[in-house]
Amino acid sequence: MKITYWITTSILSIFLLWSSYSYLFSKAAIEGVRELGFPDYFRLQIAILKLLAVVIILIPQIPVAIKDWAYSGIILFFITAIVAHAVNKDPFIINLINILMIGIVITSYICLRKM
Known about the structure:
It is a single chain. The protein is built from 5 helices and no strands. By secondary structure, it is mainly α. The chain has one domain (2-114). Helix 1 packs antiparallel against helix 3 (40-58), helix 3 packs antiparallel against helix 4 (64-87) and helix 4 packs antiparallel against helix 5 (92-114). The protein starts with a helix and ends with a helix. 21% of the residues are buried.
């Protein structure tokens, strides 16, 4: 259980860090967020919240109750991304990746609660 937790949590953390970095520094990602209709401050807010979520889920000393909120926020991010990409008629592969990431989030969370 512990190995599965750390594998899924590591994959999730790497994805969130990469996404956060892209939201802050990649011109393509910045334009992509604008094309989805979100204001610039939302992009910055999401990038910072993703970084905070990574810190919260990776530090073992942080209480599980706080981790619960981080996992909830991560799921909300992916649901928002799925809706935005579907409305924008983006390629389905983008939403498939988001759905896969939701599965990884759920697996990580279940493993956390069982440890």
